[in-house]
Design brief:
Layout lengths: L6 E5 L3 H12 L3 E5 L13 E4 L1 H10 L2 H9 L7 E6 L4 E6 L14 E4 H9 L6 E2 L4 E6 L5 E5 L4 E4 L1 E4 L6 H6 L5 E14 L2 H4 L11 E4 L5 E7 L31 E9 L14 H11 L5 H8 L7 E8 L10 E3 L2 H4 L8 H20 L5 H30 L4 H15 L2 H7 L7
Parallel strand pairs: 1-2, 1-11, 2-7, 4-13, 11-17
Antiparallel strand pairs: 3-6, 4-5, 8-9, 9-10, 12-15, 12-16, 13-14, 14-15
Helix pairs in contact: 1-2, 1-4, 1-10, 2-10, 3-4, 10-11
Length: 438
Protein backbone atom coordinates (compact mmCIF):
# COMPACT_ATOMS: atom_id res chain seq x y z
CA UNK A 1 0.00 0.00 0.00
CA UNK A 2 1.36 3.42 -0.91
CA UNK A 3 2.20 5.77 2.00
CA UNK A 4 1.29 8.86 -0.04
CA UNK A 5 -2.12 10.43 0.61
CA UNK A 6 -4.62 9.34 -2.02
CA UNK A 7 -8.08 10.82 -2.31
CA UNK A 8 -10.90 10.39 -4.85
CA UNK A 9 -13.53 13.06 -5.51
CA UNK A 10 -16.86 11.91 -6.95
CA UNK A 11 -19.27 14.49 -8.36
CA UNK A 12 -22.84 13.20 -8.15
CA UNK A 13 -24.61 10.83 -5.77
CA UNK A 14 -26.51 8.64 -8.20
CA UNK A 15 -26.33 4.86 -8.50
CA UNK A 16 -22.92 4.69 -10.18
CA UNK A 17 -21.22 7.30 -8.01
CA UNK A 18 -22.49 5.85 -4.73
CA UNK A 19 -21.63 2.28 -5.71
CA UNK A 20 -18.09 3.40 -6.57
CA UNK A 21 -17.81 5.25 -3.27
CA UNK A 22 -18.97 2.18 -1.34
CA UNK A 23 -16.38 0.02 -3.11
CA UNK A 24 -13.52 2.45 -2.47
CA UNK A 25 -14.53 2.88 1.18
CA UNK A 26 -14.68 -0.90 1.57
CA UNK A 27 -11.09 -1.10 0.26
CA UNK A 28 -9.82 1.66 2.54
CA UNK A 29 -9.42 4.30 -0.19
CA UNK A 30 -10.20 7.86 0.88
CA UNK A 31 -13.24 9.12 -1.06
CA UNK A 32 -15.82 11.91 -0.91
CA UNK A 33 -19.07 12.36 -2.85
CA UNK A 34 -20.52 15.78 -3.63
CA UNK A 35 -24.23 15.82 -4.53
CA UNK A 36 -26.16 18.89 -5.68
CA UNK A 37 -29.49 17.80 -4.11
CA UNK A 38 -30.21 19.38 -0.74
CA UNK A 39 -31.06 16.03 0.89
CA UNK A 40 -31.14 12.34 -0.01
CA UNK A 41 -34.91 12.47 -0.61
CA UNK A 42 -35.09 15.87 -2.33
CA UNK A 43 -36.52 14.45 -5.57
CA UNK A 44 -38.01 11.31 -7.04
CA UNK A 45 -35.26 8.87 -7.99
CA UNK A 46 -37.51 6.71 -10.16
CA UNK A 47 -39.72 3.67 -9.67
CA UNK A 48 -38.93 -0.01 -9.93
CA UNK A 49 -35.57 -0.98 -11.38
CA UNK A 50 -34.43 -4.28 -12.86
CA UNK A 51 -31.00 -5.41 -11.67
CA UNK A 52 -29.44 -7.91 -14.03
CA UNK A 53 -26.48 -10.21 -13.21
CA UNK A 54 -23.94 -7.53 -14.19
CA UNK A 55 -25.50 -5.04 -11.80
CA UNK A 56 -25.88 -7.60 -9.03
CA UNK A 57 -22.24 -8.69 -9.31
CA UNK A 58 -21.13 -5.06 -9.11
CA UNK A 59 -23.19 -4.43 -5.99
CA UNK A 60 -21.84 -7.62 -4.43
CA UNK A 61 -18.27 -6.56 -5.19
CA UNK A 62 -18.60 -2.98 -3.91
CA UNK A 63 -20.94 -3.24 -0.93
CA UNK A 64 -19.89 -4.66 2.45
CA UNK A 65 -21.58 -8.04 2.99
CA UNK A 66 -24.23 -6.81 5.44
CA UNK A 67 -25.37 -4.06 3.04
CA UNK A 68 -25.51 -6.48 0.12
CA UNK A 69 -27.66 -8.72 2.33
CA UNK A 70 -29.89 -5.70 3.03
CA UNK A 71 -30.17 -5.14 -0.73
CA UNK A 72 -31.19 -8.78 -1.25
CA UNK A 73 -33.67 -8.57 1.61
CA UNK A 74 -35.44 -5.56 0.12
CA UNK A 75 -35.74 -6.82 -3.45
CA UNK A 76 -39.18 -7.58 -4.81
CA UNK A 77 -40.34 -10.93 -6.12
CA UNK A 78 -37.72 -12.25 -8.51
CA UNK A 79 -38.42 -11.78 -12.19
CA UNK A 80 -38.75 -15.17 -13.91
CA UNK A 81 -39.72 -14.07 -17.40
CA UNK A 82 -40.15 -11.16 -19.79
CA UNK A 83 -43.23 -10.98 -21.97
CA UNK A 84 -44.44 -9.27 -25.12
CA UNK A 85 -48.15 -8.48 -25.50
CA UNK A 86 -50.38 -6.82 -28.05
CA UNK A 87 -52.45 -3.78 -27.10
CA UNK A 88 -55.40 -6.23 -26.80
CA UNK A 89 -53.45 -8.06 -24.04
CA UNK A 90 -52.72 -11.12 -26.17
CA UNK A 91 -49.42 -12.70 -25.20
CA UNK A 92 -47.10 -12.87 -28.20
CA UNK A 93 -43.95 -14.22 -26.59
CA UNK A 94 -42.78 -15.10 -23.09
CA UNK A 95 -39.05 -15.46 -22.46
CA UNK A 96 -37.89 -17.25 -19.32
CA UNK A 97 -34.84 -15.90 -17.51
CA UNK A 98 -31.90 -18.31 -17.55
CA UNK A 99 -30.61 -19.20 -14.11
CA UNK A 100 -28.30 -22.00 -15.25
CA UNK A 101 -30.45 -24.70 -13.64
CA UNK A 102 -31.01 -25.48 -9.98
CA UNK A 103 -31.53 -22.84 -7.32
CA UNK A 104 -30.89 -19.26 -8.53
CA UNK A 105 -27.50 -17.85 -7.53
CA UNK A 106 -28.27 -14.90 -5.21
CA UNK A 107 -25.50 -12.86 -6.85
CA UNK A 108 -25.98 -13.78 -10.51
CA UNK A 109 -29.78 -13.83 -10.59
CA UNK A 110 -32.13 -11.13 -11.88
CA UNK A 111 -33.71 -8.87 -9.30
CA UNK A 112 -36.39 -6.22 -8.96
CA UNK A 113 -35.88 -3.37 -6.50
CA UNK A 114 -37.29 0.08 -5.84
CA UNK A 115 -34.90 2.81 -6.99
CA UNK A 116 -35.56 4.60 -3.71
CA UNK A 117 -34.62 1.49 -1.75
CA UNK A 118 -31.45 0.96 -3.79
CA UNK A 119 -30.49 4.56 -3.05
CA UNK A 120 -31.03 3.92 0.68
CA UNK A 121 -28.72 0.90 0.49
CA UNK A 122 -26.02 2.85 -1.34
CA UNK A 123 -26.20 5.77 1.10
CA UNK A 124 -26.01 3.58 4.21
CA UNK A 125 -22.98 4.25 6.46
CA UNK A 126 -21.87 7.11 4.18
CA UNK A 127 -22.76 10.12 6.34
CA UNK A 128 -19.13 11.25 6.54
CA UNK A 129 -18.51 10.66 2.83
CA UNK A 130 -21.56 12.06 1.01
CA UNK A 131 -21.93 15.85 1.10
CA UNK A 132 -25.31 17.24 0.01
CA UNK A 133 -26.22 20.69 -1.32
CA UNK A 134 -22.96 20.89 -3.26
CA UNK A 135 -23.53 22.19 -6.78
CA UNK A 136 -20.44 21.60 -8.91
CA UNK A 137 -19.21 24.61 -10.89
CA UNK A 138 -15.87 23.62 -12.43
CA UNK A 139 -12.58 21.86 -11.74
CA UNK A 140 -8.96 22.97 -11.99
CA UNK A 141 -5.83 20.90 -12.47
CA UNK A 142 -3.10 21.90 -10.05
CA UNK A 143 0.47 21.07 -9.25
CA UNK A 144 1.72 17.55 -8.57
CA UNK A 145 -1.28 16.07 -10.37
CA UNK A 146 -3.84 17.29 -7.83
CA UNK A 147 -7.29 18.31 -9.02
CA UNK A 148 -9.69 20.72 -7.31
CA UNK A 149 -13.47 20.88 -7.67
CA UNK A 150 -15.24 24.17 -6.99
CA UNK A 151 -18.84 24.47 -5.78
CA UNK A 152 -21.50 27.16 -6.00
CA UNK A 153 -21.41 27.83 -2.25
CA UNK A 154 -17.80 28.99 -2.50
CA UNK A 155 -16.22 25.82 -1.13
CA UNK A 156 -13.82 23.48 -2.91
CA UNK A 157 -12.35 19.99 -2.60
CA UNK A 158 -8.96 18.70 -3.73
CA UNK A 159 -8.00 15.14 -4.59
CA UNK A 160 -5.88 12.93 -6.81
CA UNK A 161 -8.66 12.14 -9.27
CA UNK A 162 -12.14 13.38 -10.06
CA UNK A 163 -14.99 11.14 -11.20
CA UNK A 164 -18.02 12.54 -13.02
CA UNK A 165 -21.11 10.71 -11.79
CA UNK A 166 -23.40 13.71 -12.18
CA UNK A 167 -25.87 12.31 -14.70
CA UNK A 168 -26.81 13.04 -18.27
CA UNK A 169 -26.41 16.80 -17.91
CA UNK A 170 -22.96 16.37 -16.38
CA UNK A 171 -21.18 19.67 -15.85
CA UNK A 172 -17.91 17.78 -15.47
CA UNK A 173 -18.36 16.25 -18.93
CA UNK A 174 -19.16 19.65 -20.40
CA UNK A 175 -15.77 20.92 -19.21
CA UNK A 176 -13.72 17.76 -19.78
CA UNK A 177 -15.26 16.48 -23.05
CA UNK A 178 -17.19 19.42 -24.55
CA UNK A 179 -17.55 17.54 -27.84
CA UNK A 180 -19.45 14.68 -26.15
CA UNK A 181 -23.07 15.44 -26.95
CA UNK A 182 -26.39 14.23 -25.59
CA UNK A 183 -29.43 14.47 -27.83
CA UNK A 184 -33.17 14.67 -27.28
CA UNK A 185 -34.60 11.56 -28.97
CA UNK A 186 -38.04 13.15 -29.29
CA UNK A 187 -39.51 10.30 -27.22
CA UNK A 188 -41.61 11.02 -24.14
CA UNK A 189 -42.56 8.50 -21.48
CA UNK A 190 -45.47 9.08 -19.14
CA UNK A 191 -45.36 6.77 -16.14
CA UNK A 192 -47.69 6.01 -13.28
CA UNK A 193 -48.24 3.47 -10.56
CA UNK A 194 -51.29 1.70 -9.24
CA UNK A 195 -51.38 0.08 -5.81
CA UNK A 196 -51.82 -3.68 -5.96
CA UNK A 197 -55.13 -4.85 -4.48
CA UNK A 198 -57.45 -7.78 -5.09
CA UNK A 199 -59.31 -5.60 -7.59
CA UNK A 200 -56.24 -4.40 -9.50
CA UNK A 201 -54.69 -7.88 -9.54
CA UNK A 202 -57.54 -8.97 -11.82
CA UNK A 203 -56.40 -6.49 -14.47
CA UNK A 204 -53.28 -8.48 -15.35
CA UNK A 205 -52.63 -11.96 -16.78
CA UNK A 206 -50.93 -14.45 -14.46
CA UNK A 207 -47.64 -14.31 -16.36
CA UNK A 208 -47.27 -10.60 -15.62
CA UNK A 209 -46.84 -11.47 -11.96
CA UNK A 210 -43.73 -13.46 -12.90
CA UNK A 211 -41.99 -10.67 -14.78
CA UNK A 212 -42.47 -7.41 -16.71
CA UNK A 213 -43.81 -7.03 -20.21
CA UNK A 214 -43.55 -4.78 -23.23
CA UNK A 215 -46.72 -3.95 -25.17
CA UNK A 216 -46.25 -3.97 -28.94
CA UNK A 217 -48.88 -1.58 -30.29
CA UNK A 218 -49.67 0.17 -33.58
CA UNK A 219 -49.53 3.93 -34.31
CA UNK A 220 -46.05 4.35 -32.82
CA UNK A 221 -47.14 3.55 -29.28
CA UNK A 222 -45.67 1.17 -26.74
CA UNK A 223 -46.10 0.40 -23.07
CA UNK A 224 -44.06 -1.19 -20.33
CA UNK A 225 -45.87 -2.89 -17.43
CA UNK A 226 -44.28 -4.40 -14.32
CA UNK A 227 -45.50 -5.61 -10.94
CA UNK A 228 -43.49 -4.77 -7.82
CA UNK A 229 -44.34 -7.11 -4.94
CA UNK A 230 -42.23 -6.69 -1.83
CA UNK A 231 -41.22 -9.75 0.16
CA UNK A 232 -39.74 -8.03 3.22
CA UNK A 233 -40.86 -6.18 6.30
CA UNK A 234 -38.98 -2.84 6.49
CA UNK A 235 -38.80 -3.22 10.27
CA UNK A 236 -36.58 -6.27 9.81
CA UNK A 237 -33.94 -4.50 7.70
CA UNK A 238 -31.08 -2.36 9.05
CA UNK A 239 -31.32 1.44 8.90
CA UNK A 240 -35.00 1.15 7.85
CA UNK A 241 -33.82 0.36 4.32
CA UNK A 242 -36.87 -0.29 2.19
CA UNK A 243 -39.01 2.08 4.23
CA UNK A 244 -40.37 5.51 3.40
CA UNK A 245 -38.52 8.79 3.69
CA UNK A 246 -39.77 10.90 6.59
CA UNK A 247 -39.75 13.91 4.25
CA UNK A 248 -42.01 12.29 1.67
CA UNK A 249 -43.99 9.71 3.65
CA UNK A 250 -47.34 11.43 2.95
CA UNK A 251 -46.85 11.26 -0.83
CA UNK A 252 -48.05 8.24 -2.79
CA UNK A 253 -45.50 9.14 -5.45
CA UNK A 254 -42.71 8.45 -2.93
CA UNK A 255 -44.47 5.45 -1.31
CA UNK A 256 -41.81 2.76 -1.01
CA UNK A 257 -43.42 -0.09 0.94
CA UNK A 258 -46.67 -1.03 -0.80
CA UNK A 259 -47.01 -3.50 -3.69
CA UNK A 260 -47.87 -1.76 -6.93
CA UNK A 261 -48.11 -1.96 -10.71
CA UNK A 262 -45.88 0.31 -12.75
CA UNK A 263 -46.93 1.36 -16.25
CA UNK A 264 -45.14 3.56 -18.78
CA UNK A 265 -46.58 4.77 -22.09
CA UNK A 266 -43.91 5.32 -24.72
CA UNK A 267 -44.41 7.52 -27.78
CA UNK A 268 -42.87 10.37 -29.71
CA UNK A 269 -43.67 13.71 -28.13
CA UNK A 270 -45.89 14.90 -30.98
CA UNK A 271 -48.22 11.93 -30.42
CA UNK A 272 -49.42 13.30 -27.10
CA UNK A 273 -52.53 15.52 -27.32
CA UNK A 274 -51.22 18.29 -25.08
CA UNK A 275 -52.20 21.89 -25.60
CA UNK A 276 -49.18 23.00 -23.55
CA UNK A 277 -45.63 21.90 -22.80
CA UNK A 278 -45.78 18.58 -20.96
CA UNK A 279 -43.65 20.04 -18.16
CA UNK A 280 -46.58 22.35 -17.39
CA UNK A 281 -49.19 19.55 -17.35
CA UNK A 282 -50.34 18.06 -14.06
CA UNK A 283 -51.05 14.40 -13.33
CA UNK A 284 -54.73 14.64 -14.27
CA UNK A 285 -53.93 16.17 -17.65
CA UNK A 286 -51.32 13.51 -18.39
CA UNK A 287 -53.74 10.78 -17.33
CA UNK A 288 -56.40 12.09 -19.73
CA UNK A 289 -53.87 12.31 -22.54
CA UNK A 290 -52.75 8.70 -22.08
CA UNK A 291 -56.34 7.46 -21.90
CA UNK A 292 -57.17 9.27 -25.16
CA UNK A 293 -54.20 7.62 -26.86
CA UNK A 294 -55.12 4.07 -25.76
CA UNK A 295 -58.89 4.35 -26.15
CA UNK A 296 -58.97 1.38 -28.55
CA UNK A 297 -56.74 -0.83 -26.36
CA UNK A 298 -57.96 -3.65 -24.14
CA UNK A 299 -60.10 -2.11 -21.34
CA UNK A 300 -57.76 -3.58 -18.74
CA UNK A 301 -54.91 -1.35 -19.94
CA UNK A 302 -57.25 1.61 -19.77
CA UNK A 303 -58.20 0.66 -16.22
CA UNK A 304 -54.54 0.53 -15.20
CA UNK A 305 -54.21 4.17 -16.20
CA UNK A 306 -57.65 5.34 -15.06
CA UNK A 307 -57.31 3.81 -11.58
CA UNK A 308 -53.84 5.25 -10.95
CA UNK A 309 -53.60 8.17 -8.57
CA UNK A 310 -52.77 11.27 -10.71
CA UNK A 311 -50.16 12.29 -8.14
CA UNK A 312 -48.02 9.30 -9.25
CA UNK A 313 -48.14 10.17 -12.96
CA UNK A 314 -44.96 11.83 -14.21
CA UNK A 315 -43.28 12.58 -17.56
CA UNK A 316 -39.77 11.66 -18.68
CA UNK A 317 -38.16 13.07 -21.82
CA UNK A 318 -35.76 10.52 -23.29
CA UNK A 319 -32.23 11.61 -24.15
CA UNK A 320 -29.26 9.63 -25.38
CA UNK A 321 -25.52 10.17 -25.62
CA UNK A 322 -23.81 10.22 -28.99
CA UNK A 323 -20.90 7.72 -28.99
CA UNK A 324 -17.47 9.32 -29.31
CA UNK A 325 -13.95 8.09 -29.89
CA UNK A 326 -11.61 7.41 -26.94
CA UNK A 327 -10.04 10.54 -25.46
CA UNK A 328 -6.70 11.40 -23.84
CA UNK A 329 -6.57 9.87 -20.39
CA UNK A 330 -6.29 12.33 -17.51
CA UNK A 331 -7.09 12.21 -13.81
CA UNK A 332 -10.71 13.02 -14.67
CA UNK A 333 -13.01 10.20 -15.73
CA UNK A 334 -16.72 9.46 -15.97
CA UNK A 335 -19.26 6.80 -15.01
CA UNK A 336 -22.89 6.08 -15.87
CA UNK A 337 -25.11 8.64 -17.56
CA UNK A 338 -22.36 11.26 -17.34
CA UNK A 339 -20.71 9.54 -20.33
CA UNK A 340 -23.10 6.96 -21.82
CA UNK A 341 -26.64 8.15 -21.13
CA UNK A 342 -29.09 5.82 -22.86
CA UNK A 343 -32.79 5.24 -23.37
CA UNK A 344 -34.52 2.98 -20.80
CA UNK A 345 -36.01 0.64 -23.42
CA UNK A 346 -33.62 -2.23 -22.70
CA UNK A 347 -33.43 -1.68 -18.96
CA UNK A 348 -29.62 -1.65 -18.87
CA UNK A 349 -28.70 1.95 -18.03
CA UNK A 350 -28.41 1.53 -14.27
CA UNK A 351 -26.74 -1.86 -14.65
CA UNK A 352 -24.15 -0.35 -16.98
CA UNK A 353 -23.47 2.40 -14.41
CA UNK A 354 -22.98 -0.27 -11.73
CA UNK A 355 -20.65 -2.16 -14.05
CA UNK A 356 -18.66 1.07 -14.50
CA UNK A 357 -18.43 1.49 -10.73
CA UNK A 358 -17.10 -2.03 -10.19
CA UNK A 359 -14.54 -1.79 -13.00
CA UNK A 360 -13.28 1.66 -12.02
CA UNK A 361 -13.15 0.68 -8.36
CA UNK A 362 -11.05 -2.37 -9.18
CA UNK A 363 -8.58 -0.26 -11.17
CA UNK A 364 -8.34 2.58 -8.65
CA UNK A 365 -7.65 0.07 -5.87
CA UNK A 366 -4.80 -1.35 -8.00
CA UNK A 367 -3.34 2.14 -8.36
CA UNK A 368 -3.74 2.79 -4.64
CA UNK A 369 -1.80 -0.38 -3.92
CA UNK A 370 0.98 0.69 -6.27
CA UNK A 371 0.31 -2.12 -8.75
CA UNK A 372 -0.07 0.36 -11.61
CA UNK A 373 0.03 4.11 -12.10
CA UNK A 374 -3.18 6.09 -11.61
CA UNK A 375 -3.23 7.13 -15.28
CA UNK A 376 -2.81 3.50 -16.35
CA UNK A 377 -5.62 2.47 -14.03
CA UNK A 378 -7.96 5.08 -15.50
CA UNK A 379 -6.89 4.17 -19.06
CA UNK A 380 -7.56 0.47 -18.44
CA UNK A 381 -11.02 1.36 -17.14
CA UNK A 382 -11.86 3.71 -20.00
CA UNK A 383 -10.71 1.31 -22.72
CA UNK A 384 -13.28 -1.27 -21.59
CA UNK A 385 -16.02 1.16 -20.52
CA UNK A 386 -16.09 3.03 -23.83
CA UNK A 387 -16.65 -0.23 -25.69
CA UNK A 388 -19.44 -1.81 -23.64
CA UNK A 389 -20.96 1.53 -22.62
CA UNK A 390 -21.49 2.85 -26.12
CA UNK A 391 -22.56 -0.61 -27.34
CA UNK A 392 -25.34 -0.33 -24.75
CA UNK A 393 -26.20 3.18 -25.98
CA UNK A 394 -26.59 1.93 -29.55
CA UNK A 395 -28.60 -1.11 -28.48
CA UNK A 396 -31.00 0.89 -26.34
CA UNK A 397 -31.45 3.52 -29.07
CA UNK A 398 -32.37 0.78 -31.55
CA UNK A 399 -34.93 -0.59 -29.08
CA UNK A 400 -36.37 2.91 -28.59
CA UNK A 401 -36.77 3.41 -32.31
CA UNK A 402 -38.49 0.04 -32.66
CA UNK A 403 -40.82 0.83 -29.75
CA UNK A 404 -42.06 4.02 -31.41
CA UNK A 405 -42.02 2.89 -35.05
CA UNK A 406 -45.17 3.50 -37.10
CA UNK A 407 -44.18 0.96 -39.76
CA UNK A 408 -47.30 -1.24 -39.86
CA UNK A 409 -45.66 -3.88 -42.05
CA UNK A 410 -42.65 -4.24 -39.73
CA UNK A 411 -45.00 -4.46 -36.75
CA UNK A 412 -47.05 -7.21 -38.37
CA UNK A 413 -43.90 -9.17 -39.26
CA UNK A 414 -42.56 -8.83 -35.70
CA UNK A 415 -45.82 -10.10 -34.21
CA UNK A 416 -45.83 -13.06 -36.59
CA UNK A 417 -42.23 -13.93 -35.71
CA UNK A 418 -42.97 -13.68 -31.98
CA UNK A 419 -45.97 -16.00 -32.31
CA UNK A 420 -43.92 -18.49 -34.33
CA UNK A 421 -41.13 -18.56 -31.74
CA UNK A 422 -43.67 -18.93 -28.93
CA UNK A 423 -45.14 -21.98 -30.66
CA UNK A 424 -41.73 -23.68 -30.93
CA UNK A 425 -40.38 -24.11 -27.35
CA UNK A 426 -37.08 -25.81 -28.36
CA UNK A 427 -36.28 -22.96 -30.76
CA UNK A 428 -37.25 -20.38 -28.13
CA UNK A 429 -34.97 -21.98 -25.54
CA UNK A 430 -32.10 -22.00 -28.03
CA UNK A 431 -32.59 -18.37 -29.04
CA UNK A 432 -33.04 -16.97 -25.55
CA UNK A 433 -31.10 -19.31 -23.29
CA UNK A 434 -28.95 -16.40 -22.03
CA UNK A 435 -31.59 -13.70 -22.33
CA UNK A 436 -31.04 -10.73 -20.03
CA UNK A 437 -27.64 -11.82 -18.70
CA UNK A 438 -25.75 -9.11 -20.54
Amino acid sequence: MSDAPFHVIIIGGGIGGLCLAQGLKKAGVSVAVYERDRTAAARLQGYRIHINPNGSRALHACLPPHLYDAFLSTCGQASKRFGFYTEQMEELLSICRSENGGEPDPVRSHKSVSRMTLRQVLLAEMDDIVHFDKKFECYQEGQEGKITAFFADGTSATGDMLVAADGGNSRVRQQFLPHAKRIDTGILIIAGKLLLTQETRRLLPTNLFEGPASVVAPKGLGMFVAVQEFVHDPKDVIYSIGGNSCEKQSSLLFENTKDHILWQLIARREKYPFQKDVTEADGCEMQKAVLAMIEDWDPRFQSLVRMSDPSTITPLSIHSSVPIQPWETKTVTLVGDAIHSMTPMRGIGANTALRDAELLCENVISAHRGEKSLLQAIRDYENKMVQYGFDAVRSSMKAAQQSTSENAVALAVMKRVFRLIQSLPPIKRLLFRNYGNG
